[in-house]
Design brief:
2 helices, Alpha-Beta Plaits, single chain, about 15% helix, alpha+beta, 6-stranded antiparallel beta sheet, 6 strands
Length: about 120
């Protein structure tokens, strides 16, 4: 895992997530989305699902987009644990500070991806 810096200069910070879920209905996509937070419910609040619809490029894939807040005292280690609970391989983006993470079932050396997740993008 690379070095990253969460925006913790405020009490509550914003995060955007886009999940591509292997399912053929919105209820299944919501279940997969909710499963991402099973062990981390206390870290996230005010989860606002903006979109839950079929992904136009692929059959049996739904895209779920959500804004949420994380509590400002979440450490890098806690956030990395959250990421590692979803996938064991992530690609990070950002010039100086890493502020976007991507995991996909097509990434080389990805041996674990949470059940139902095809791809996930997190902007923090």
């Amino acid at each position: 895992m690379c070095s990253l810096r969460l925006r913790t200069d405020k009490e509550v910070c914003q995060l955007f997530m886009r999940l591509f879920a292997n399912t053929n209905h919105s209820d299944g996509a919501q279940i997969i989305f909710d499963s991402l937070f099973e062990d981390f419910k206390l870290c996230f609040q005010n989860i606002d699902v903006l979109k839950n619809e079929p992904y136009w490029k692929m059959d049996d894939v739904f895209v779920v987009e959500a804004n949420m807040e994380y509590i400002g005292d979440v450490t890098d280690e806690q956030f990395i644990s959250f990421l590692e609970s979803i996938a064991d391989k992530w690609q990070f983006f950002g010039e100086i500070v890493k502020e976007e993470a991507l995991a996909s079932d097509t990434m080389e050396e990805c041996n674990f991806l949470k059940k139902g997740v095809k791809m996930i993008n997190i902007i923090y």
